[in-house]
Amino acid sequence: MGLMDRVKAQATQLAQQTKDAAEQGKAKLDQAQAGRRADAMLRQLGALVYADRTGRGTSDGQAKIDQLINDISTHERENGLNLTADPAAQATMPPQSTVPPQSSGPPQTSFPPDPPSPFPGQPANEYGPGQTTGPGQTSSPDAGQAPPQNQSFFPGPGSAGPESSGSSSFPPES
User: Which residue range forms the structural domain that includes residue 28?
Assistant: First the structure.
């Protein structure tokens, strides 16, 4: 087999692989669009049923519910979907998409609770056992608290500093 025959065979093979990948991508896209359409119809159905059950439905609400049920059943058959599958079983399945979800902030990290304190009667941290700071809070134990009124770390004007007394008073004792 000559060089040109090998190049031609590889080009043919590459073209077939590209075609297969495009077909797989289109199938995934079609499946995702079908799922989104089904979700929209199920949401409409849920809103109509909720309005009907809470006494806020319209006079033609039952007809709309029946029509949506027929549309959803048809959509399931045409797209090979099972919209009545157990959501708990679907949650344990690996995600179909390899695209990471968009995040609007930094990743949230979960930490295990603090171990029990080795000292009786005292929590392991200043927040109590198993407590941590919440979003927007600082980890400072006195965050959001005013400093004590009788304590100052810097001497006022005209006051003698620690150098004159010969002893360090940082922070000064009250």
Answer: 7-80
State CA 92 to chain mean position distance.
16
pTM above 0.70, yes or no: no
Q: Which residue has the higher pLDDT, 111 or 146?
A: 111
Q: What is the pLDDT of residue 99?
A: 47
Residue pair 71/44 in contact by the 8 Å Cβ criterion? no
Is the Cβ–Cβ distance between 76 and 34 less than 8 Å? no
Encode pLDDT of 15-30 as tens digits. 999 999 999 999 999 9
Query: Helix count (H) and strand count (E) of the chain?
Result: 4, 0
Domain count, the chain: 1
The kind and range of the H/E element at 14 are helix 3-53
